[in-house]
């Protein structure tokens, strides 16, 4: 069973000695990862004790990064404190799908024009 951790508790972990962040309603203790983070420790400290979902998604982390972070998960927000942050990933995926569709349409138009 996953431990529920409130924002009140998370906010206490906002310094170099204890860095907890929320990403997609899950709570991560990334204190031991500060020195290893490819983006530098400042990127993590900026969202220490806060919801870092938007920052995390804006950077466009790889699947490898998403797998690495699993080992730092220590809990989840209580249902009453959760946000719809999972929609950020869905919007990001939708953005890429729309771009791919637009690209396919352009390629189709160009091919039709030059093959006619």
Write the layout of secondary structure elements.
Blueprint (H helix, E strand, L loop, with lengths): L6 H4 L3 E2 L2 E6 L2 E4 L11 H5 L7 H7 L3 H7 L3 E4 L9 H30 L1
Antiparallel strand pairs: 1-2, 2-3, 3-4
Give the % helix: 40-55%
Terminal-residue CA separation: 62 Å
Element pattern in H and E: HEEEHHHEH
Report the CATH architecture of the largest domain: Roll
Structural class: alpha+beta
CATH superfamily caption of the largest domain: Cytochrome b5-like heme/steroid binding domain
Please give a structural write-up.
This protein has 116 residues and is of the alpha+beta class. The protein has two domains: 83 residues, Flavocytochrome B2, Chain A, domain 1, CATH 3.10.120; 33 residues. It contains five helices and four strands, in the order αβββαααβα. A four-stranded antiparallel beta sheet has the order 1-2-3-4. The protein is elongated. It starts with 6 loop residues before the first helix and ends with a helix. It comes from Galleria mellonella (Greater wax moth). Pfam families: Cyt-b5 (PF00173). It is a single-pass membrane protein.
